[in-house]
Amino acid sequence: MSPARVRLLTALLCVAMALPGTAEAYIHLAFEFGGKTISIKWPTSPRWFVTDRGVAGVSASQFQAEVERAFAVWEAVPTSSIAFQFAGFTSALPSENDDLSVFGFEAEPDMDRVLAATGFIVDVLTGDIVESDVFFNSVFPWSVAAAGEPGRFDLRSVATHEIGHFLGLGHSAIGETELRADGTHRVLAAGTVMFPVSMGRGNVADRTLQPDDIAGASDLYPDGTFQARTGIITGRARLASAGVLGAHVVAFNVRTGSMIGGFATSQDGTFRIAGLTPGPHVIRVEPLDDYDVESFLSSPGVNVDFRAAFHPRLIVAPVGGANASFDVIVRPK
Amino acid sequence: MRAPGTATLRVSVPRCVAVAVLFLFNAGASANAQATIAPPIHRLEVSLGVGLVGGADLGGQTAEERSSSAGATFGLFDTATELGSAPAFDVRLGVAITSRFTVEGRASLSRPELRTSISGDTEGAPAITAVESVDQYLFDGGVAVRLGGRATRLVPFVSAGAGYHRQLHEGQTLAEGGSLFYAGGGVTRWLVVRRQGLVRAAGFRADARLYFLSGGISPDTRRQAALSGGVTLVF
Description:
The structure holds two protein chains of two kinds. By secondary structure, chain A is mostly beta strands. Chain A is 13% helix and 33% strand. Chain A folds into two domains: 5-218, Collagenase (Catalytic Domain); 227-330, Immunoglobulins (Immunoglobulin-like, Sandwich), CATH 2.60.40.10. Chain A has helices spanning 60-75, 155-167, 211-220, 226-229; strands at 7-8, 15-18, 30-33, 36-39, 47-51, 85-90, 102-106, 114-123, 129-137, 142-143, 153-154, 175-179, 185-190, 231-239, 242-243, 248-253, 259-263, 270-276, 279-286, 309-310, 315-317, 326-330. By secondary structure, chain B is mostly beta strands. Chain B has one domain (15-54, 87-113, 133-234): Porin (Beta Barrel), CATH 2.40.160.20. Helices cover 9% and strands 63% of the residues of chain B. Mean pLDDT of chain B is 85; it is low at 1-35. The interface between A and B is large, with 47 and 39 residues.
């Protein structure tokens, strides 16, 4: 390992899909290094391996086939240039740091609310992903049935979510939960595959990408014309005169009905949502109170003490550029 | 027969318009001008008008998420979008190619509001109407067919044509356009008609149109009615 290209494996870059009851619209995974925020991404088409061992009900070849189908969903995004290569089966495990990006089952009974997780080794100077491993927790019942299977988690749906992380996407907050009496959350709905909580046993909805997922992947790995054909909306979320760190901002296209989200990621409440279909959008701001704040943002001081609100102006995403920044005013709870 | 112009103007024309028409008329007046009823053909007609472009319902959308109940959806909030009505200013150029048919082109500018009513937020965000202003340009060309005989100063007509429309969103951030068709009708009241001079005829024109617009701010074909009235001069 070259001293100038220190590699870092950090918990900050380990993201998991949680069970219902536990665990940015789209946000790119990033880390702070040398005073700068660096987004992570693959510098070239990644090669991925699969462990050569299955679990009860899912053979290694069935596992590989389902993961391959999940990769194909991301490769099929017409506005993204990302492509993947299956490199073969391996005896290596996802938890090993070996320069191989490995997908496979591992038993983690202590992680009793984590279905799967993605970890990274990245070049901290460039943000280039060197290795990314995805483990599926074999303590849960899994299904590879074409239409899903009651009582079992759909492997392809969870793989599709984890591959979003594998690309460099963080969690999206376009989803609704309700708080149970025991303090856990139940998912009511999700508008993105990258919502941090599974839709539940037998549910195969997360096999299909949503506009927020597509915008996130396309923004990170754009095809030749994506950025020239789409627009960016930028602004600030404000509570009185202060910025609202962590405000979840959704841009809703009044023509297509698509929702793409973003977060106010700085103290002054600035947000930026890219990859929007040009045209007028409704802007909705809400607190990150549908789930654990830490599953979306690691910054301290996230403000969730305000009410959801709409901006009184329609904001137009231009073609190939950004709107003039504006302020969205929210009120305290 | 009255002397051209003055008597009629006195009784039916706003003072400022009357002054303008008289000025133009007198600028080209000659001593041997003779009154006639029908304006000449093969001459350029210029109209300036003001009016109203009606609004259009652009439909509604629900912000939908996938419900955790298989196959169901979850509505986060509802929206309904409309383009408001707005005053319009227009310029029309035409040439009567026969005593019955006039080919004409028109440009119209209005600034309606695009309004989206938002309601039913599941997390209690107050209902609101989000708005932006849009500069809307209509450019069209077509044929106007004169109805009835020429021996009258009050000339009804029907018209139809096609063209292009363009909307420029607030802050000039995005321009969109599409095609249009229109059909309509109206009436021209000739106040002054002369055989010679720079201005051969002057009058008022009022017309109503129904536009069918596709593309632009709405992917679906929408209908917008328009009313316009103004001054018409024949040179």
